[in-house]
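pinned: reference chain
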Amino acid sequence: MKALVVVDMQTAFLERMGDVEASEEVVARVVARIRAAKRLKRAIIVLKYELYGPNDPRINKALKGYKKQVTIWKSQDDGGPAIHQYITGERKRLREFQLVGINLGFCVLSTCYGLRHYNYCAWIDTAGCNREGGGRISARSTKKNHRRTAA
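pinned: its structure tokens
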């Protein structure tokens, strides 16, 4: 089964972006993906960083009343271990994850790597993140590109 993972769409992170227009755009793109996931009856995992407060109200509104959602708290950039713990503890059959959200280069990417570590299929929908562009980035291809640019 597939799931949408909404990463760190908390007010504190959106305010840190400093660009109100860009912040509005990323929220709108994430809300669109939440609506699409709901139409497809997919699970939605809302991944939140501890101590960074509530989600943006538009995210909460888009999720309101949807029964196939869960909020998972994390204490580090990589939310993969927290998601894996939830899946194994609740015996969920989730195997593929579409990641969207804020902090593409940190929390979203780290969570993608973390999920791949547990042998899940995970990819980043960059059009649903706080960065220009679109498409899919798998953890494997992103890791390769990251090594190339880091050198």
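why pinned: Confidence is low (pLDDT under 50) at residues 140-151. The radius of gyration is 14 Å.
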